Amino acid sequence: MKRIFINQLAVVGIFVLILNAQAIGANSTPKMGGTLPLINLDMPKDPVHRSYLGLSGEGQFNISQIKAKVLLIQIFSMYCPLCQREASRVNELYENIEKDPEARGKLKLIGIGAGNSQFEVDIFQKTYEVPFPLFSDGDFSIHKSLGEVRTPYFIGAKINDDGSHEIFYSKVGGFEKAEEFLQMMFELSGLK
């Protein structure tokens, strides 16, 4: 009788370990070679941003609908001093992308404000004169699905014609020089 109870307890213990491993894996940070979780964002109100992303309409869209070969996502927070300090470099990165004929239209940049309301995202965008689309993640749902990464965090993903994608870059922290970072994105993504 004792032996049956111990065996049953062992089976339950193994089952709990498996469930915990799945839960931990579900919230791990994005891995190179992996894919992003399903991320739905509100359609930008600014027509310039909709055009930049190659989107039309209202409501929500999925990241895989963005018209680009490569998507670079910055996870930021308006309260993050590193994000504030990096804002001018990230703006410079955007400008370098738009000036480069091999990158323009193929490599797109967006920001997602972890825990930031749309009001907070708008303040960040205005204060730091961010020219590319920024999105609110006020309830942390996207942030949680990405493993609750620290900010700033950059994720690079190649987007295939069928909407599938593959992560080629996933790292916390900023960068020193926008031009060098762009060259690294070219090399890692295979865009150039």
How is this structure best described in words?
The strands form two sheets. The chain has a five-stranded mixed beta sheet with strand order 5-4-3-6-7. The protein is an alpha/beta fold and 192 residues long. It has helices at 2-26, 47-53, 81-99, 118-127, 141-145, 178-189, and strands spanning 40-42, 60-62, 70-76, 107-114, 134-137, 153-159, 165-172. Helices cover 41% and strands 21% of the residues. Strand 6 and strand 7 (165-172) form a beta hairpin. The chain has two domains: 1-29; 31-189, Glutaredoxin (3-Layer(aba) Sandwich), CATH 3.40.30. It has six helices and seven strands; from the N terminus they run H-E-H-E-E-H-E-H-E-H-E-E-H.
